[in-house]
Amino acid sequence: MDHQSSNSQLPDIVQKAQLHAPIQKVWAAVATSEGLASWFMPNDMEPVLGREFHLEAGPFGRPQCKITEVEPTERLSFNWGKDWTLTFEVMEQGGGTAFTLIHSGWVSGGATEFGQAHSEVAKGWPADGQVS
């Protein structure tokens, strides 16, 4: 029997924000190594389909990541470690840019490579569902 067959998928974590910035500026903040490092984690990411890279996650090491989807100025998605997928969506809206971050791959009873329960890691996201 598969180890995870007794575990169930948990809902994705979805964070949304309306930003008063042009879409190109928001895209640069999610689709460049420098932009992503400025608000998330240091990394050696390039927005190229299939490109492998690392996030510098401090005490949680250097998880291996891989770009799985790139739609310039619209969507970037990558696998994060063994379990998760992070997706950034941007869309022009109301004179600014709508930004959505989707963190998927949560499993009840699941744990990270460092033995942290998924339920504990998920507590790191803002409870109000808003990116600051």
* Estimated helix fraction: 10-25%
Distance from N terminus to C terminus (CA atoms, Å) equals 42 Å
Strand order of the largest sheet: 1-6-5-4-3-2
Helices and strands, in order, run as: EHHEEEEEH
Note the total helix count.
3
Principal-axes geometry comes out as globular
Estimated share of beta-strand residues: 25-35%
* Strand segment tally: 6
Query: What structural class should be given to the helix and strand makeup?
Result: alpha+beta
Tell me, rounded to a whole number, the average pLDDT: 86
Low-confidence stretches: 1-5, 127-132
What Rg is obtained from the alpha carbons, in whole angstroms?
15 Å
Biggest sheet overview: 6 strands, antiparallel
Keywords:
six-stranded antiparallel beta sheet; disordered N terminus
Task: Report on this structure.
The chain is an alpha+beta fold. Helix content is 15%, strand content 33%. The protein is built from three helices and six strands, in the order E-H-H-E-E-E-E-E-H. It has helices at 23-31, 33-39, 118-121, and strands at residues 13-19, 52-54, 64-71, 75-80, 84-93, 96-104. Strands 1-6-5-4-3-2 form a six-stranded antiparallel beta sheet, covered by helices on one side. Strand 5 and strand 6 (96-104) form a beta hairpin. Helix 1 (23-31) packs across helix 2 (33-39). The longest helix has 9 residues, at 23-31. It is globular, with a radius of gyration of 15 Å. The model is unreliable at 1-5 and 127-132 (pLDDT under 50). This is Activator of Hsp90 ATPase homologue 1/2-like C-terminal domain-containing protein. It comes from Paenibacillus plantiphilus. Belongs to the AHA1 family. InterPro entries: ASHA1/2-like_C, START-like_dom_sf. Residues 21-126 form the Activator of Hsp90 ATPase homologue 1/2-like C-terminal domain.
